[in-house]
Structures are given as C-alpha cells and as structure tokens.
Amino acid sequence: MYKRRTDLAMEAHELWKESAGETTRLEGVEARDTTREGFQVTTVKVLSEAGAAALDKPVGTYVTLVLDGLLRREDDAFPRAARALAAELRALLPAAPGEEVLVVGLGNRAITPDAVGPLAADHTLVTRHLVDRVPEHFGAFRPVSAIAAGVLASTGMESGELVAALVEKTRPACVIAIDALASRSLRRVCRTVQLADTGIIPGSGVGNARMALNRESLGVPVVAVGVPTVVDAATLCADVLSEAGMAELDPAALSGAGEGVIVTPREIDSQVRDLAKVLGFGITLALQEGLNFADAELFLS
Amino acid sequence: MYKRRTDLAMEAHELWKESAGETTRLEGVEARDTTREGFQVTTVKVLSEAGAAALDKPVGTYVTLVLDGLLRREDDAFPRAARALAAELRALLPAAPGEEVLVVGLGNRAITPDAVGPLAADHTLVTRHLVDRVPEHFGAFRPVSAIAAGVLASTGMESGELVAALVEKTRPACVIAIDALASRSLRRVCRTVQLADTGIIPGSGVGNARMALNRESLGVPVVAVGVPTVVDAATLCADVLSEAGMAELDPAALSGAGEGVIVTPREIDSQVRDLAKVLGFGITLALQEGLNFADAELFLS
Amino acid sequence: MYKRRTDLAMEAHELWKESAGETTRLEGVEARDTTREGFQVTTVKVLSEAGAAALDKPVGTYVTLVLDGLLRREDDAFPRAARALAAELRALLPAAPGEEVLVVGLGNRAITPDAVGPLAADHTLVTRHLVDRVPEHFGAFRPVSAIAAGVLASTGMESGELVAALVEKTRPACVIAIDALASRSLRRVCRTVQLADTGIIPGSGVGNARMALNRESLGVPVVAVGVPTVVDAATLCADVLSEAGMAELDPAALSGAGEGVIVTPREIDSQVRDLAKVLGFGITLALQEGLNFADAELFLS
Amino acid sequence: MYKRRTDLAMEAHELWKESAGETTRLEGVEARDTTREGFQVTTVKVLSEAGAAALDKPVGTYVTLVLDGLLRREDDAFPRAARALAAELRALLPAAPGEEVLVVGLGNRAITPDAVGPLAADHTLVTRHLVDRVPEHFGAFRPVSAIAAGVLASTGMESGELVAALVEKTRPACVIAIDALASRSLRRVCRTVQLADTGIIPGSGVGNARMALNRESLGVPVVAVGVPTVVDAATLCADVLSEAGMAELDPAALSGAGEGVIVTPREIDSQVRDLAKVLGFGITLALQEGLNFADAELFLS
User: Fold this and answer.
1) Predicted ipTM?
2) C169 vs B170: CB contact, 8 Å cut-off?
3) pTM
C-alpha cells in the first residue's frame, strides 16, 4: 500500500482510523485530547507491540501540542506555548528535580528545515558550569548542558556517537533530543511539537536514518522533542486530494512519482526561528522549576 | 479550468500543448530548442496578442536555460553555465557595449527562496564608480551599478518606485531585473533560468503582484532574469499525478485545496546560493565583453 | 599639532578645553550637561564660524547621550535608552507630526563596526506603504520609509546620490541619517549616541569621506544619528597615556606611527547589534508620537 | 614590570632580545628564520625550563608563518599559503600517514575574532565516516573528524572536557587544535599563524584561561594552530610608541591604563574569514598526502 510518510504518532493514528474507519478501536493504542494554555494536546500511548506495529512507532507515550495561535502571532501566544510545552515535558521527564540533563540539538544548521534542533539548543538556558563554579548563586538550578550535535558530513562522527561520548563523560540523568520531523500535512508544519519518551532516530525527518538515541544506545532515558518542518511531495499530494474531498486514488499509481522530493513552506526561515525559541524557553521552564516566563526572558533574550 | 501556475513561458507553452495536443500549432507563438555549452536552451517568442493571451505572457522573447548539470555539481558546470547565460543575455541586451546598465535584485533577503535576486546582485561586478573615478584603469569597462531593491514591508517603498528613482537619477541605457519565479514543477526549481525582454512584475513568483518594471514604467528597456524557486502545492500535486501517469483529474475538484500554500525544496539554501553566483557571473560576463571567466573570478570571488 | 581624531562634538570640546585650560571659554560654543531617563546628555551648540573652526564641526546643535547602563545590561536600560533617544531626537526634528520622514542607514553591512546604520534602519518601523494603502488602520501614523543605502563599492552609486534620488521621488519633509562614527576613546565606543541637526558626511567615521547629506545637497533638512564604533590606533594610544596620568608626549613624535590603523572592541558584534536595536526603537518612538515602548515592541521585535 | 601580552613565541623572543640586547644569547632557546613558498618562517625551539621561564612558553617547538602577501591579495598567495602551512604542519605532526586525526576548532562563533577556530574546522575536509563506510573509494584517505568545541557559556561543558570525551570515544592518534591568539602588534593580527607541538590552553588569546589541551590532559599529542586576532590596548599603545621611535616609557606608569580592553582591526570580519579558509586548506593538505591544492578546492569550496 502507498504509505503516507509521517513521524507524528498522532497522524499515524489518524491515518489508521481513516483506513479502518472512525469507530474501530485499535488494540494496544490509547489516544486522548485535552487542552493546555488554550492549545490542543493529543496524547497517544502505544501500549503493546501490536499497537507499535499498527502505527509503526515504538511502544511509549507521544504528546503532541498544536500551537496554532503561534503562527498567527496572537497576543501572548509565545509565553502560553512555552508554558504548555514546559508542563507537558515535565510530566514526561525521567529525572528528579536537581538531576543533570543534557540537551542535544540534532540536525544541520546550514539547511533551514533541519536547523530547528541546533537553534533550540542555542535558546536553552545552560547552567552546568554555573552550578559547578558559582554554587552560592546557582545552587538552586538544575545543571543543564547543551550541544548541537552537528551532522555526519561535517564532523565525521555520528550524532549518536558524539552524544554517547558526552553521556559517558558527564553522566546526566537523562537526555532531551530535539530534531526536525516529517509530517503528512503542510498544515502541521512548524505549528506542532511532539514529545516522546521513546528516544529518537536522528535525521528520520529528512530521510537519513541513523543510530538511535535511546536508553538502549546511551544507557540513560531519552525524551525526544520533535517539530515537523518538511513533507514529502507524494504525501503532500495525497493530502491535497483529500482536502479537495476526492475519493482516494489507488495508491499504487502514485508510487515512484515525486519520490524523494521533500518540500517545506516558503517562509520556513522565520517559522523555524520562532519555533526554536519556543522550544528553548519551554525546555528551560520544564527543567528549572524555580523560573517563570519573565525570568527566562532575562536569561535567554 | 484549474490553472497550473507558472511564470515560465516554456512551461506555459508545454501546458498549452498538453491540453491542445502535441501536433497542434499555436498561432502567434514560435518555440525552438538549441544547445549552448552543453545545456538545453528553449526560446519561446510570443509574437502576437493572440499568442500572449494563449500563454498568459506579454509579447516578447523568452529564453530558458536548463542547467541540469549544475545541481549534480558536474566538472566545470559552473563556468559553462555562466558562459551560456552570458551569451544568451548579451543577445537580448538592448544596450550598446559602453552604455550604462543598472542591475536590480528583487525580493526579500530574509526569505531564502526570495533571496536569489539580492544575492545575484551581490555577485555582479559593479564598475560605475570606478569608470567614473579611475578612468585610466577602468575606461574599458561598461559602467554597471547594482542594487537590491528591498521589499515594500521593509522600506515602505515599492521596488518599482525605488528603481524608477534611480533610473531618473543615473539614466542607464537599460535595466536588468533579477527575481524569483514560480514553476509548475519541482524538477525545474533552482535549475532553470528564464531571460525575457519584456520586463517583470516584482514578486509575481511568490504571490504579491506589484507595479511592473518595464519600458512603460521606467522609460528604458528592462531585461528580466528569473529563477523558479517555488511551486504552489496544488500545482505540485497535479504534477505528481501526471508523473504517475494518471489521467488528469477534473480540475474543479482540486480548486481550493492546498490553496496559497507555496513550497520549496528542503535544500533551498544551498541551491539558491549556488544559482545566485551563476547569475552574477553570467551577467558580469554578458556586460563586460573584455572579461573571461577566469578574470571574473578574480574580481568576484 | 598631532590631532586626536573624533567625530563627536562633545569630545572635540573636551580636547579644546584640555589644550586651552578648563576655565577658558570658547567663543561661539555653548555646552551644557543634563540628564534624561538616568543617562547623561551633553548638548554642544556651535553658534559661529569661529566656534566651528575651533571644534572642526559645522555650525549647529549636537546632542550626545551617554548610555552607560546599556552595556552593563542594567534592568530596563533598554526602554529607558530608547525613550531618552526619542525625546532628544524629537526636539531636534524639523518635521511636523504627520509629515513624511525618510530614514537612511549608512555604512557597510559586511563590516561589523560599519553595520550599525543598516541594522538600525532594519529596526525602524516602516509605515509609508501602510498609511497609503490601509489608511483606515494606519491613518494616525506618520509615513516613514527606510533604506540601507549600501556602499559605493557594492552599488556603484554614492549613498548621497541614492538618497538624493529617493528624496526627489518621495519628497519627505526631512531625512534621518544613521552612521558609524570615530571616537577618541574606546570607553565611548558603542555606548554613546550623537544627534546633530547639521547633516552628515557618510563614512567619515571610517576614513572615506564622501558627498555630504545635508540641506544643501538634498534640499530637505537632515538629522544625523551617529554612534562611535571605532578609534584610530594613535588616538587610542594618546588616550591610554592620559589615563595613566602621564604628561602628554610631544605629538609630532607620534605622527605616522600606527597611522591608518582603526580598531574596535573585541565584542563589537553584540554591542553593535544591541545598539542598533536601541536606535531603531528610539527613532520609531520619536517619529510615532502615539506609540509607547510596549507598542513598539509588538511591531518591531 | 609591565608585560606586553603575546601568545606568539616569536614575539616573546623578540621582546626578550629588546630588553636584553640584540647580541645576547638566550640559554635554552634556539631561533631560526627560513622561507617557504615565499613567506617568512620563524622557528623558535624552547629546549629547557630556563628557556621556558624566560619566554613564558612551555618547552617545545613553535613555528610561525608570516603570511604578508595574503592580506594584500597577491596573485596565488592563497594556494602558496596553504601549501606552506601544510608543509610546516606535516613536519610537526606526531601521527603516521594513515592514522586518525581529530581537528578541534576552539572559540566562540558569535564573536568574530574568536570565530577563526570554528570557521577553520568548517573548512577542513572530514573523511572519517567516508573511510569507514565507503572504503572502496576513500580507503586511501586518512580518517579525519572535526568539531567546533563551542564555549563554556553556550554548552555548560569546557572545551577540554568535550574534546577529552571524543578522544576517549574515537581514539585518534593526535589532535589538532585551532584557536585565536593575542599578539603584541596589530601588524601581525590576521597575517600570522603559529604551529606548536606543545598543545594549547583554549581562550588564552582572549583572557579566559581554561583547562589545557595537551598530551597530559588528553593522552594523545596535540598540535596547536594559532592565529593572532586581538591585541590588548596597553600593548598596542607601547607598540605605537616604539614605532614612533620613542624611548620606552617607565612601564609602571602604564599599568592599569586601558586594562582589559582588547582591540581588533576594523575589517576583522573578512580577515578572519579569509584566514580560516587558508587554515582549513593547509590542514587538509597536511593530513591528506595524496591531495594537491586543486583537489582540495573540489572538495572544500
């Protein structure tokens, strides 16, 4: 069958329901919608290997925030989005309040849709050196280090290899890994964030699968923060047809057409910059429980 | 009828032939394929108002170079592309060898697919001040000035208004205006250049039509140098379906779907940078007849 | 005599007093210190040709703000600096509230200490197109256009020529021209702003004097906004010696040494970025009387 | 005594001779001038602890290339400089031809004079992943990995800690560490490269000394590649006075004046970019014996 490509568990679940029928229940998968700070939050729990196979996603919890007001630059959408992200991320975080966390920005700074991870790492408050050297002022902070892991072609090292080296050296309690994803729909690009307690495979959003970053490979739990920034051309086409209310084509017919062509919205530059800032603020608020949004602005802007 | 959106006369002609049948001849339009420096060159001449109406393009000559080897980074593709562009541009240029030319880069530097015009202007050899002040060394050069015209939102002035002010002040023999275009096909994005002696409407590639830059508005002839950097989502979809060999859908069904969504390839950053350099070199070689490619490298790299 | 190089009237006046003695009064020059929003403001009025000759500055009013808290990133230093600049600039502005103003950023974006003018123009709220096209929403705003005038080497046109073309075309009531200056002292670099109702000679801060931008050359009054970003090496040396409390050397001995070497602080990148933002906000608040700082943040950040 | 600040062994030796007299011989130090590809090469060998104490530099070999033609953009100065650097670096390199090397760019990308290390790492040909994955094509290359080590404030990790983690993980035969230095003289800034087999203390050029990168700290030999990009203000002043032929002042008098003020030439942006490219090419030619300059251009430009 022609497969629409998506890294979002929420979309994988939608697609399953589209093919199986809205009323059918998928064994081993629980989904639930709530609202946080005015944004829709969808939590998909993959509970069994059967559910994992059906959605093509590992067992674990996937939380998707739909940050619609953000692109419309609604009043106070930015602090609301950062706080919503912080609350959901904190709930997933497998680290006690004072334990060290390593934040990793995956992807290629030189290619805008891949740059969201490195840019978000830039916007994260880094405290590990301060907690260590100026404990009288920073003793109440959680030690946080951050790195943009670069890409294989520019370092000669896999992101996973680099992160593993740092985990062995600095021994954090957990890793937060930020990466670009692929969505099935342009409407979700740059306005959706997926949190997952399953770890991540760097570059999966853009077609170059690599060594996974997860508890198995690193020895510590990994929370993934993913943002869809691309759509593949054939998936986009199927989406446009559905939007037009057309009966779906025989998918075999599309196979091969537009293959490998990955697209991105024209205004990707500003959208990626804005969203990276939300991610950095949200991660900082999740990690530093004593800070509120106004505090974070003083440190990060 | 559902219209695939394109700024390329070559594609408009293809689309007409697809609907009317390959063997039908379009009144008032002549098309011809040749080769230059190993690249395909398609010249479409719109000779009458009937032809103009059929293709939705003003009367004039449109020369399209397909620079396929460039993206594959074939050996010496860059100098060959610059020379091919120079030869075709010189043939269209309505200015005698020593006459002054103003080069205008249209578009928004902050949005990558719109930045090709400003970047190409940056890569053009500017000589007007040198010819004027150091005639003993630069007397043999054509005086060339260049400007990135900015965008309405950042200057408060239309590009056309700004260029008109400069034309009145500096009195060039002609204007070369570089801009981003929309193509019907992702396969042509960033590997095609269209030269036209008809002038240009800034921003037409990205949905914000403005005052035209042409002989009527400026009082001097305008040669347009356009590069497709975007495709609209519905057009892309129709293209993917055709590629898949499917009979075309009833176009009415698609109308409204994916509307206004403009896409661009994921690697747009490097593709736009590379092509802007080819444009700057090609324009420089067209304007300065005494320079060869190696000379231009000394001045421009 | 060895001349310390400075573009600041305040420093020229200091130097005159250092050579003539603190108690001597300079004929044709009035100086006065006040405070605005907690910052020191020095106003030097050059009233006669005798005063102009003594200070090597044209007849006119020069207002210097010393924004010391800004580099120390004191709480609310940024809004205070923007408001102080706005109040002083408005007092100098030769345009009635609704009259159009053209803001020009002079200098070279590619050289950090020269980039303050273009960056400040980027941070200025541009309204001319909105007042014209959406008068129902923007009718209460003053029409403001803005341009980074580029540099001779990249456009082939003098900044003065370009600005003159735009003034002829758009007919503003006055021009505000922003440029980098040279100071005698590194301590003033990037923490001082000079406003002058005399116009400006582009590039004078960095050694390439050009056609003046003033009422004589443009036909409309020109307010200059200048920021010292460089010091020449010999001037810096004389300053270090004075700071060390040493009797001044025979200046002839220094002539030729370190000549033409222009220096800048190591952290010039962030200092220029921060100050450009203050300038853009300050100019916007001066021009749009209905806006307060929080309003400007919504439009400009 | 007032100390002129320098990270160049060549300058430390000059200063010693200026104070001790040209004809005095310094015990434990050997210096020798030669020429390579038309550039002056000065080798200073610090042979004993007495020599180390006199020059305030660890025992080891320091090779300084003076790349004067480079800033004047003389014909073919770029390839000559890259080849000269490659030859001198190869002579110092403690690794056999096929052994893996890790190249580290130290310093802060956001501050231009500190960015030379990260930029040079960007211009170095990275092959480790290719040798490993495509041995049929890249088996003849030396495996090279490269990383910009970031700065403490942005990662929370010391550069030394990060490099140690990578050395433990990837086990290279040696490390090449590139960093910005301080010179005593603006005339040497951005036109001098110092190679040293002693390792390096990151950030020593700009006032923030850190954990050393050397055989003791990393367990593998470290070759330092340093470029002076800054001068401190008091040192510059002493230099300007000497240039003016003045007897040197009592240094105590200057102490405290201009203290901590670090300066850089106005055109630092383009100078750092150009020199980083020379470093990347030179390091690549040193490490890949089978490549010539034209080959390196294909890979690196």
Assistant:
1) 0.89
2) no
3) 0.91
